[in-house]
C-alpha cells in the first residue's frame, strides 16, 4: 500500500508532505467480521520519520509517469474488484433491493439520533425469520396448562380465588422479564345476590295465591344490575325482545304493559332486551335459553335444560355508579348513576322453567319464526284469559368491591409512546374456560413468547401492552374504568386493541370482528396460518367476517352474545382500531356453555374433540403475527383508505329516501362530498408515503400518527363521552350515528307522526360535519387541506 501511495503522488507530480502519512487497515463489516473493506486515513507525522523517504524521492520524468499511471489503473481495478466482492459477501443478506424482497423484509429500524445513544442494530430479520422465531418459542403445552388452572372453579371479582389469580398473572409477567409489570386498582360498585334473602319466582292463581314455586336452580346465576324489587302480573312471550318483536306484538293487539315478558337468549344483549321491555312498560323480564338457539342435549355436549345463562343488564359499560369517571380511590364521584341502569327487575331462568310457564300461555299463536324447540310448548303470545300470573322478587344488593387490572409491557425502541394493546378477561362467575381461561392463557403465552424473541434479537418499534382485565362479566367494568382514567392520553398513544376474549368457542369456524382498518392485514395473516384440523387449508379458507365476507364467501352474522354487544371493543371510546377473534359454529350458534356453570375445560375440550390446545395455538399464531406487523413495521399496516368504501356503502343506504329529502329541501350531496374529500385525502397520504424516503424517521412518525388516529377522526365531537361512550359515527351507538339517522328517516314511511324534522335536520348536519372533519384531519396540516365541500 505504501508503494501505491508513492505511485499516486508521483503520477500527479506532487511532492509528499513532510508532516503526514497514510494508514490503511481493514474495517469491520456487519456482524463484527473484518471483511467490510479498507479505510484510508491521513495522519500527522513527525519530520524525522520521513528522512529515509525524502532521500529516495526523485522527480519523475514523462516515461516514469506513464508507467506510474498504468500501475495506478491496474491497482485501482484490482482493489475495486476485491472490495466489491468482499462487500457483496458481507452485505448480500441485508440488501432488500438486491434480494428483491423488500415487501417481505422487516428491516431493523434506524434512527440517526438514536444511533449515537444505543448500539447499532443487528442483522435485519426477514418476515420468514420472525415467523420461525415466534413459532419456535410458542408452547402449546403452556396454553393448555393455563386454561386448566384458570378454569378450576369460579373466580368472581373480590373473591379469594380471584386474588390468587391476580397475583399469579402479575408474577408470570415478572418472571417473563417484561420491561414493566404492575396492577391498576379500582373501587367499583358491583351487584350481588343477597345470600340471606334469595331471589324467587312464583306462579300465582287468579286470586294471587302461590300456585307453584318455580325453581331458580343456581343462586349464582342472576342478572347483575337488575332493578331490585318485585314484579307481579301476567306473562307475554316477546321472542328475542328486539324492538321489532315488540312492534309485532303491538300489531297483533298484544300489550305488554302491566305484565312480565319472557324472552329468549340471543340476537341482542340482555341490556337491550330489558330496555325494550321497559319502553313497552312491562313490569319485569325473564330470559331463558331456547334449544333452537343453544343446543340442550347433554348427551351431545349440549346445555342442561336446568341451567340458566347469566348476563348483566346495564345499558353501557363500566361502573354504572360512576358513569364517565374512573373509579380510583382518590376520585371525587358526583352523586349520579348511569342512565343505562334498568328500572324493572329481571332474572335468567332455565329452559325447563321456561317450558313450564310457556306451556300454560293462551292467546294468539306466535309467528312461525318465533317458535323454538321447547318440548310440548305451543308458543302462544299470552297473556290470554285467565292467563298465567307470576311474581318475581329480585333482592340483589350493591356491593363495593376492589378490583385489579394487571399489566405488563415490552417497550418499543423507536416509538415507545405508541401502544399496541392486547387484552383478555380474567374473571368469571362460573369456571369460565372459554369466558376467561383461553383468553388469559393466550395473553400470558404471547407475553412470554415476545419477551423471549426480544431477548434473542427481535426489536420492537412500538410498545406491546398486555392487559388482564377484572370484573368484565359485569359489563367491561375493569377495562372501562382504566380507559376512563387515561382517556385523555390514550387517543394519542393507542395504535390498536386486540381482544382475546372468547377466542375459542367450541368449533373450528373462525370469525373475525374487526375495524375496517385492520381487515386487510388480518386477511393476509390468516393466509399464513395453517388450520389446526383441516390438512392443506389455511385459516383464511375457514374465516367469516360478520361485516364483510372475503371474496365469494357469503357473509354471516356474528354469533349472538348473551352478555352484551359492545363488550368486544373496550378501547372504542378512545378511537383505537380494534379486532376480536373467535372460532364458532358455522350456523352462528353460540357456544352452549358460555356464561354458565358448565363452562369447564372438559366441556370445551370435548366439543373440540380434544383439540382445544391446538385450536388455541392457531389463534395465538394469528394474533402473534398480527402483533409482529403492528409493533415492528416502519409504517403502520393499517388500511386507512378502507373507510372510503364503508362511507360509500353507508351513504348509499339513504338513496331510496332521496325524494322525501328533496321535498324538505334536503340533499345527500354534502355527505357524498365529504366522502369524496376523505377518499382524496387518503390517496394523497398514500402518495406522500410512497414518494417519501423509507429511512426518514421524522416523516415515518408523522405518517404513523395520521394513520393511527383515523379511527379517532370518526368519533363525533358533538356528544359527550360520559353520556355516549360509543361516539363512532359509523360503528357506535346513539343518535349521532348514521345508523340512527337512517332509522329516523325510515319513520317518514313507517310512522310519519313520529318523525321529528327539526331533530332530523340537526342529526344530518352534525353527522355530515363529523365525516367532513375526518376528511380534513386525514389531509394533514391545515395548509395541506384541499377540500371541495
TrEMBL record:
GO biological process: cellular response to iron ion; endocytic iron import into cell; multicellular organismal-level iron ion homeostasis; positive regulation of endocytosis; positive regulation of peptide hormone secretion; positive regulation of protein maturation; positive regulation of transcription by RNA polymerase II; transferrin transport
Pfam families: PA, Peptidase_M28, TFR_dimer
Record domain Transferrin receptor-like dimerisation: where: 667-778
One GO cellular component term: HFE-transferrin receptor complex
Gene3D superfamilies with a match to the protein in the record: 3.50.30.30, Transferrin receptor-like, dimerisation domain, Zn peptidases
Annotated transmembrane regions: 68-91
GO molecular function, one term: co-receptor binding
Annotated membrane topology: Single-pass type II membrane protein
InterPro entries reported in the protein's UniProt record: PA_dom_sf, PA_domain, Peptidase_M28, Peptidase_M28B, TFR-like_dimer_dom, TFR-like_dimer_dom_sf, TfR1/2_PA
Keyword set, alphabetical order: Cell membrane, Disulfide bond, Endocytosis, Glycoprotein, Lipoprotein, Membrane, Palmitate, Phosphoprotein, Receptor, Signal-anchor, Transmembrane, Transmembrane helix
Compartmental location: Cell membrane; Melanosome
Main location group: membrane
Region named Disordered: 547-581
Domain Peptidase M28: 405-609
Superkingdom to which the source organism belongs: Eukaryota
Boundaries of every PA domain copy: 232-293
Family under the similarity heading: Belongs to the peptidase M28 family. M28B subfamily.
Name this polypeptide is given: Transferrin receptor protein 1
Amino acid at each position: 500500500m505504501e508503494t501505491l501511495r508513492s505511485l499516486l503522488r508521483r503520477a500527479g507530480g506532487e511532492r509528499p508532505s513532510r508532516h503526514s502519512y497514510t494508514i490503511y487497515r481493514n474495517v469491520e463489516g456487519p456482524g463484527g467480521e473484518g471483511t467490510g473493506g479498507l479505510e484510508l486515513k491521513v495522519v500527522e507525522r513527525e519530520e524525522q520519520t520521513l528522512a529515509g523517504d525524502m532521500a529516495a524521492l526523485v522527480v519523475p520524468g514523462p516515461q516514469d509517469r506513464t508507467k506510474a499511471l498504468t500501475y495506478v489503473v491496474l491497482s485501482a481495478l484490482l482493489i475495486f474488484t476485491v472490495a466489491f466482492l468482499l462487500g457483496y459477501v458481507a452485505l448480500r443478506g441485508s440488501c432488500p433491493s438486491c434480494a428483491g424482497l423488500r415487501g417481505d423484509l422487516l428491516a431493523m429500524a434506524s434512527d440517526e439520533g438514536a444511533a449515537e445513544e444505543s448500539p447499532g442494530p443487528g442483522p435485519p430479520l426477514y418476515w420468514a425469520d420472525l415467523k420461525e422465531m415466534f413459532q419456535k418459542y410458542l408452547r402449546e403445552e403452556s396454553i393448555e396448562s393455563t386454561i386448566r388452572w384458570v378454569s378450576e372453579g369460579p373466580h368472581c371479582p373480590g373473591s379469594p380465588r380471584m386474588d390468587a389469580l391476580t397475583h399469579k398473572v402479575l408474577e408470570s409477567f415478572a418472571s417473563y422479564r417484561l420491561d414493566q409489570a404492575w396492577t391498576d386498582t379500582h373501587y367499583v360498585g358491583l351487584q350481588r345476590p343477597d345470600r340471606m334473602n334469595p331471589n324467587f319466582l312464583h306462579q300465582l292463581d287468579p286470586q294471587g295465591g302461590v300456585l307453584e314455586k318455580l325453581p331458580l336452580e343456581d343462586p349464582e346465576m342472576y342478572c347483575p344490575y337488575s332493578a331490585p324489587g318485585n314484579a307481579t302480573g301476567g306473562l307475554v312471550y316477546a321472542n328475542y325482545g328486539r324492538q321489532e318483536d315488540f312492534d309485532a306484538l303491538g300489531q297483533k293487539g298484544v300489550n305488554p304493559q302491566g305484565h312480565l315478558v319472557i324472552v329468549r337468549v340471543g340476537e341482542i344483549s340482555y341490556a337491550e332486551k330489558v330496555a325494550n321491555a321497559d319502553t313497552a312498560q312491562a313490569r319485569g323480564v325473564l330470559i331463558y335459553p331456547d334449544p333452537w338457539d343453544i343446543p340442550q342435549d347433554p348427551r351431545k355436549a349440549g346445555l342442561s335444560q336446568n341451567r340458566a345463562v347469566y348476563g348483566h343488564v346495564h345499558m353501557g359499560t363500566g361502573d354504572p355508579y360512576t358513569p364517565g369517571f374512573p373509579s380510583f380511590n382518590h376520585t371525587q364521584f358526583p352523586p349520579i348513576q348511569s342512565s343505562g341502569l334498568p328500572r324493572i327487575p329481571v332474572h335468567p331462568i332455565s329452559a325447563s322453567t321456561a317450558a313450564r310457564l310457556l306451556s300454560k300461555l293462551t292467546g294468539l299463536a306466535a309467528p312461525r319464526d318465533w317458535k323454538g324447540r321447547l318440548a310440548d310448548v305451543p308458543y302462544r303470545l299470552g297473556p290470554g284469559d285467565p292467563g298465567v300470573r307470576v311474581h318475581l322478587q329480585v333482592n340483589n344488593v350493591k356491593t363495593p368491591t376492589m378490583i385489579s387490572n394487571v399489566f405488563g409491557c415490552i417497550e418499543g425502541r423507536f416509538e415507545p409512546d405508541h401502544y399496541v394493546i392486547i387484552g383478555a378477561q380474567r374473571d368469571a362467575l362460573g369456571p369460565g374456560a372459554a369466558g376467561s381461561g383461553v383468553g388469559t392463557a393466550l395473553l400470558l403465552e404471547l407475553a412470554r413468547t415476545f419477551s423471549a424473541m426480544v431477548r434473542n434479537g427481535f426489536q420492537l418499534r412500538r410498545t406491546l401492552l398486555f392487559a388482564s382485565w377484572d370484573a368484565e362479566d359485569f359489563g367491561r367494568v375493569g377495562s372501562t374504568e382504566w380507559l376512563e382514567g387515561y382517556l385523555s392520553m390514550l387517543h394519542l398513544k393507542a395504535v390498536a386493541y386486540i381482544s382475546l376474549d372468547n377466542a375459542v368457542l367450541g368449533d373450528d369456524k373462525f370469525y373475525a370482528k374487526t375495524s375496517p382498518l385492520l381487515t386487510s392485514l388480518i386477511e393476509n395473516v390468516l393466509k399464513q396460518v395453517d388450520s389446526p384440523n383441516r390438512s392443506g387449508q389455511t385459516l383464511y379458507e375457514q374465516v367469516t367476517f360478520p361485516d364483510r365476507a372475503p371474496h365469494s364467501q357469503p357473509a354471516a352474522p356474528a354469533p349472538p352474545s348473551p352478555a352484551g354487544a359492545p363488550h368486544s371493543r373496550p378501547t372504542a371510546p378512545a378511537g383505537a382500531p380494534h379486532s376480536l377473534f373467535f372460532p364458532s359454529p358455522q350456523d352462528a350458534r353460540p357456544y352452549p356453555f358460555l356464561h354458565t356453570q358448565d363452562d369447564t375445560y372438559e366441556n370445551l375440550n370435548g366439543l373440540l374433540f380434544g383439540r382445544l390446545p391446538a385450536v388455541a395455538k392457531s389463534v395465538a399464531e394469528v394474533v402473534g403475527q398480527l402483533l409482529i406487523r403492528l409493533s415492528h413495521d416502519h409504517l403502520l399496516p393499517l388500511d386507512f383508505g378502507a373507510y372510503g368504501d364503508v362511507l360509500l356503502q353507508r351513504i348509499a343506504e339513504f338513496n331510496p329516501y332521496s325524494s322525501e329529502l328533496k321535498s324538505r329541501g334536503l340533499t345527500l350531496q354534502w355527505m357524498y362530498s365529504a366522502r369524496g374529500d376523505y377518499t382524496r385525502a387518503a390517496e394523497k397520504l398514500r402518495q406522500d408515503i410512497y414518494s417519501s424516503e423509507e429511512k426518514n424517521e421524522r416523516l415515518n412518525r408523522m405518517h404513523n400518527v395520521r394513520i393511527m388516529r383515523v379511527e379517532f377522526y370518526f368519533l363525533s365531537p358533538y356528544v359527550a363521552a360520559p353520556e355516549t361512550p360509543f361516539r363512532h359515527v359509523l360503528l357506535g351507538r346513539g343518535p349521532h350515528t348514521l345508523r340512527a339517522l337512517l332509522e329516523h328517516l325510515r319513520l317518514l314511511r313507517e310512522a310519519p307522526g313520529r318523525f321529528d324534522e327539526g331533530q332530523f335536520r340537526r342529526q344530518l348536519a352534525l353527522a355530515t360535519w363529523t365525516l367532513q372533519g375526518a376528511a380534513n384531519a386525514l389531509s394533514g396540516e391545515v395548509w395541506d387541506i384541499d377540500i371541495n365541500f
